[in-house]
Amino acid sequence: MSVIETQALLAELTSGDDTRAENSVPAIIELGMAAIPALLELTRVEEVDSRWWAVRTLAASPHTQAENLIPLLSDSAPEVRAAAALALCDHPHESAVESLIKTLADEDSLTAGLAGNALVKIGSPSVLSLIGVAQEAPTGIRTRCVALRALSQIQDHRAIPVMMKALSEESAVLQYWAQEGLDRLGLNMVYIKP
User: Fold this and answer.
1) Has residue 156 got a pLDDT over 70?
2) Could you tell me the maximum CA-CA distance found in the chain, to the nearest angstrom?
3) Which of 28, 43, 133, 141 could form a disulfide with 147 if both were Cys (CB 3.0 to 4.6 A apart)?
């Protein structure tokens, strides 16, 4: 495909018309690796909508690497940060763990939840960091809940002590995710304090 045709597809992607933009995504993905630099360049433009569409297209491309998406978790727009976290669900890699852990405390609850989902997709390499957050997140209950939810879905036995401790928390949501995690690990029993 020529440079002119590529530019035409990118113009469709950033047209401001959602239907036209969505229709251009498969053709951009067909460009393969050649489209990645242009999409990454789009993630740095001022227009939020264009950045979002660039991330959405990167998420759909099999050529996207986690390292392309990690910086976008710090975008100024919550919708771009959410799209980046969702994209990391499709391109999970342990190199994203640290950034995703920070994103659990994002002011936008959708972005924080999607970061938790991405950590679940990464699995075992994210467990120790999630345990640290679940034990004592300085940002509050919501962040701890997202971490416990992720731990319950990963089902790693290293999380049992933090789940047991969370059962005695005052927060019903923390208790719920701790119980859910223990049940998923096959430890569904009644817990009684001695």
Assistant:
1) yes
2) 73
3) 133
C-alpha span between 68 and 74 (Å, rounded) = 12
Query: pTM (2 decimals)?
Result: 0.90
CA 69, chain centre distance (Å) = 10
- In degrees and rounded to multiples of 5, residue 104 shows phi and psi of -60, -25
pLDDT in tens, 93-131: 999 999 999 999 999 999 999 999 999 999 999 999 999
Distance in angstroms (rounded) separating the CA atoms of residues 124 and 34: 33
For every residue of 24-71, which 3-state class applies, written as one string?
HHHHHHHCHHHHHHHHHHHCCCCCHHHHHHHHHHHHHCCCCCHHHHHH
Instruction: Kindly tell me if the per-residue pLDDT of 18 is higher than 50.
Output: yes
**Dist. CA 79–CA 177, nearest whole Å:** 27
Minimum mean pLDDT among 34-43, 55-64, 137-146: which range?
A: 137-146
Contact between 64 and 40 (Cβ < 8 Å): no
Q: Read out DSSP for 109-141? A: HHHHHHHHHHHHHH-GGGHHHHHHHHHH-TT-H
Pick the CATH number of 1-64 from 1.25.10, 1.10.260, 1.10.10, 1.10.150: 1.25.10
Domain boundaries, the chain: 1-64
